Amino acid sequence: MNDRAVPDSTPEAQALYRVLVVDDDPDMVSFLARLLRREGLAVETASDGESALMQVMTAPPDLVLLDVMLPGSSGFDVCRKLKGDETTALIPIVLVTALEDSESRVRGIEAGADDFLSKPVKREELIARVKTLRRLHDTRKELESRRLAAEVQRKEAIRKAFSRYISPRLADRIADAGEQGDPFQGRAQRTSLVALFADLRGFTRLTEQNEVGAVVAMLNEYFAVLTEAAYQHDGTIFNMAGDSLLVGFNVPFPQPDAAERAWRTALEMVARFEPVAAAWRERHGLAVGVGIGMCAGEAIIGNVGSAHYASYTIIGNPVNTAARLMQMAAAGEVLVCGPLYERIRHLVPAARVATRGDVTLRGKSESIPVFAVKAAAPEHA
Amino acid sequence: MADNIHTVTVAKDLADLIPVFFRNRQKEIETLRSALAAADFEQLRQLGHRMKGVGNSYGFAKVSEIGKRVEDNARSADKAGIDACIGEYAEYLSKVQVVYE
User: Fold this and answer.
1) I need a labelling partner for A362 at 20 to 30 A (CA). Which of A52, A87, A236, B58 fits?
2) ipTM for the complex?
């Protein structure tokens, strides 16, 4: 049998604990390799410091058994180099020294050796030391993989919890940001945002004409379509009540193009709902469509409620205005407040826009300019 | 069976390594002799050190013991001492018997 045959490259060996034996004495190498292989370990060998370094760099072993007296770079040099390089520093190194050589042990400790083995080598001592280091190695790997698994689990839990409200992309961002970057801070804050309210025109008739189970199924279908549209443009869903949906932009993460995103979301909602509305018309003889109100401005964002029940939400003028505009919007129509319209007018075909003039909204004392945009063909309305 | 000093018990799983081990020991005697002729005490010290390490690893305590003496004598540049060690080493290698267990 030739114990110097290196390296052990069978697939089985790849999964094994791999030991690199470095010694310039071929009889020592054969001896050590034989004992280690008998323990089921994969053994590779090197006869000088330079080739040992090369082998560690190209295929890092799980353990290095390193003789101190080597031609060229000594075992101490090799040990110091491996321990000084962060990519190899964690590989355990056992320095093999003469039994009575306490000076070598001191130098070995200074060079960063993890353990020592005396020459002449006693079989039991070799196996015991390698087993101990292997246990440590396995424990470290186990801890590391558990830590990684816990991290993946934590991120998945965060992603799941948030993905009901925000797009999967934003959920990933929150999961990756960890605690420091938590955008869902407990404290409410004032921020600039775009609020989009959407609801279903013809909803009342739908509930009157259908059984509860059928209504719920239809609402689910409707909300699925609107949610997909919101997530496509990274909107955050703040509220879902009855048949209305509130989506915010520029919250919780800044979106410099929040106005454009809101506009595209509105178009997307109307377009995506069209085939659903057509199917309902056919099946139930219902005339339904989405009406949308949008407004930009400063609002408060944060957790509102008690210690027992809180809801992460947005409150303020643009939200109220968007809600009122939504109520006024016809099916397939998007009503936009003046300031927001200025930000998206470059995207809106002029032929589809009608100025509503200054409108006094219910519950408001001042009037605001409002623009109506037809998002869908009017005959479906 | 020969006398105890010249009988060495070696683990069975090392049996196939022993012929190579002995060939290398014979070569070692030649190297020791030429190093002594050249009065290369550093090389002699290293050779002694190596004998000390490898000998008893395989179970040959005597090889380690002679190696230690070679190393010590080389440190004190004791040519006669080393010469005696080489003679003893050659004689030991010619007489040693191996039993595998």
Assistant:
1) A236
2) 0.91
